[in-house]
Design brief:
heterodimer; A: alpha+beta; Cytochrome Bc1 Complex, Chain A, domain 1; 41% helix; B: alpha+beta; 2 domains; 6-stranded mixed β-sheet; 40% helix; globular
Amino acid sequence: MSTRFRRPEPGPPAPVRFPSIVRHTLDNGLAVWTIPYGALPVATTTLVIGRGTAEDPPDRHGLASLTGDLLDEGAGRLDAIELADAFARAGTHLNIDTGPDATTLSCAGLSRVLDRILDLMADVVIRPRLGEEDFERVRELRINRLRQLSRSAGSMADRAWVTAVFRDHPYGHGAMGTTAALSAMSVDDARTHWQRHLAPSVATLIVVGDVQPDDVTTAAERAFGAWSVTPDEPVAAPASTAPDARILLVDRPGAAQSELRVGHAAPPRSTPLYHSLVVANAVLGGQFTSRINQRLREEMGITYGAHTSFDFRRLAGSFSCDTSVQTDATADAVREILAQFDAIRGAAVDADELDAARASLTRGYVRNFETAGQISRAAVQLVTYDLPDDTFDRFVPVVGSVTSDDVQRAAREVIDPAKATVVVVGNAEDCRASLEQIGRPIEAVTPEF
Amino acid sequence: MLSIPYTHTRLSNGLDVIVHEDHRMPLAAVNVWYHVGSKNEQRGRTGLAHLFEHLMFEGSAHQRDGYFGPLQQAGASLNGSTSTDRTNYWELVPIGALDLALWMEADRMGWLLPALSQERLDNQRSVVLNERRQSYENRPYGLATFTLMAAIFPPDHPYHWPTIGEPADLEAATLDDVRAFFQRYYHPGNASLVIAGDVETDDVLRRVEELYGDIPAGEPVGRMAPAVPPPAPRRMVMEDRVELPRLYLAWPTPQLFADGDAALDLVADLLGNGRTSRLYSRLIHDRRIAVELAAGQTSREIASTFQIVATAAPGRTLDELEDAIHDEIARFADEGPSEGEVERGRAQAETAFVYRVQALGGFGGKADQLNAYQTYLGVPDWFQSDLDRYLHATRDDLRLTCGAWLARDRATTLAVVPHGTAAGALRDAELVERGRA
């Protein structure tokens, strides 16, 4: 074969240099991070408040997220529509996301409107109206949204799985809560959540783009200086929850496929096994070429795709395989996934496979730091999980040094088919008999929405 | 002034090559567009363009065991997609893997067929049928768009059938069909290649000539003329596994980049997108008769569609929603937008365009956009002209365009309702099967 048809080898990986963060702390405790970056006149602004859905009281699931949604339903002198219009006239809009560990307000705008965006954002977080009527309206929309989600196979599977895996742990419920919990709330609950948790001392303002640190600090001081709230203590991490190795079968008559979730709890983001687990996941199911997708999609042809992932959070993590498979292959898919979980514990990953996994994680890692939005999201991780500034710079060398032994040791400690909860959302009549052959207890469940 | 500098070269076999240098990051984007989509298919043979896209990742003569392995190990992210109009493939790579990405794209452009087998076809056919189940059949409201498109575009119009294809057609596709499709549409004269990133133009062009220059030219593929169909004011109702009844209104509208296309984009935003929009503030915020709302102009090469989708609040009827929506459209067509609304649209367009030129690669990155403008207009750097379409739209433009295209008696109307509730769900509507018209 001539060299013309010989596949070229890739060159060495490009190093990652995360841009430097210029820090300042306001008197009220708000941390201000400025990250000058890029060549375009943009400023991506993010306010991360380190309290999220984990703070939902046990009888108020959905409160943090509902409060987050309510923040921009009128603030300061502007009602809900006027506020949205003010952001829109600045050429942007406000996103509010309530995750398990943090409430995040973000705006992608041009740098010339940064002051305006900070002023509006400050109104939203410091002077939200949290009005009775807006509360009623937003709650009604959420309850209707839950009705819609109760028909989505993916949402049904996610709910059934997270409830079984985490139970009464602060992570054991969906962000949107349930209709019953939402119905029991009043606007005072939202006001209380806002007063107790959305405080400057647990918040960080991150501005990335064509900006000067001094300008950002001055503008932040002016906009957020008056924010004065002392927060309650955050929720504590309880002892680990017992695994639930049943098959939970959610009947969806007439379903065209079975939606699957297979997995269990895992360590938090702070685990020393982090890099080994990232490599293990890449081998097992993190990528197109990983074992599980190769088997289920490329060899068996029973799905459009199957992947595994770790969700590393502050108090705990989880590990799962998510896929949707044709109904007549449901039990085969479950058996195959469990077998793959077992295989990565049972045998050392061979050198080629390990090299491939490490290379795919490290060689292109620099791709994750191209835009202001990417830099912002990375900085949010540093804040949320209290990680050192060199976290991203170290990723390539550390992953590069993970060995086959490291992977197997981490997999043995964390990944375990015997602990995995299996959720199947599909046509029960068609797949129950074959699922029974797997030899795990099967329980019919209906996730609560 | 928004400008993306580039050089454009055409190889002797007809391949358009566009290079854009951006040395900010040690990255390169490789992006290939083939000017073929589901609109080039025939009735009874639908789904071929998309099925073919899957096969392009399975292997080629000199890279037999798949495209994901070597590229992912080189640090690439990669993907492809098929629309009614075109099929695209891209890699975003650390600069050291640019040569690999160029080589891989060349091998499947020139030497795909020797690696194609019945087994591969059967496997990917099965994957695509599962994709169809997952993305459409198993999703609440997932087949509504198929019904709308089938109703708006007559059976012989190239947009009548869905890009993912009819299951029976996919089952019937043969290896010969797939080979013929490749020979007809996958050749340099029907493709365009963009390389963007940390590259030296002369070096890249030299390498491209080496890798792509000897791929044989194919039979030219003619452009399809615009074919915006006359309105199809049908009224349909479909039952599905859903909780709340939903109303779809759709109109045939001017094709991508034609007069009225950008104005309709802006009309969609002002009417139905986000809290500041008229329909949101009236229907969801004030009257609380709807719980979800979206509007959009889906711009495509030979005809577009404008859609408004609204989900009724419990206890509210779709007839009530329908009247309220048409009232707002009529008011817009009558009075036009305020100056404030137009300014808001301009501010948002300007921000969106600046953000659109941040990323080199991926869907919607700079390389993909250069290729889109090249494929549809023959002008790669059309960014500022595109933005100007939005900045220069006046109140009158929006008012008149709305009036000309979005009249009540031109709308195709579809209700998607829970099982057992079709009767009386929408006045004067005919019952249709899921996904059919």
